[in-house]
Amino acid sequence: MLEQYYNINGATGVNITILPDGNTIINACSVTIQNNQLSFEKKITAISSLEELAKQFPAKSVIALNLSGKGILQKQIEKTEEINHHNFSKILPNATVEDFYVQNFISGDLSFVSVIRKVEADKWISQLTTMGFVPLMLSLGAFPVQHIISQLNIYGTEVI
Fold it and tell me: Cβ–Cβ contacts within 10 Å for residue 78, how many?
């Protein structure tokens, strides 16, 4: 099912920051691979609606969605390898892990856990899909790079 996405030649990163009043700030950056090099195609900042986003990027664009702001809880806890129904009460007492998307970023002896209700995240994913985008990845808050760190080539202190 996902084989068609194993070797994509381009993607658009979309960050939606949900403000306390419910309004949004949307930033996006589109990258492609050309001649074995990553090229930045387009970057937009501080737009306020998905309609504006759809005017800037073509339908069928593969996107990596990052949500931040209102509705995303971020909590620092002692290092935990996996967040599951046994230890989720450390993050949200009396809540069920199945109702949330959970991201666990481990740094040293700490875990930085971000959660969002599935209903809220799915609302954004559905809107983007309806507009013709192809969401392939969801990340929460300040740690979207977690998903690509293992794919980067690191030589000493330089990341390539």
Answer: 8
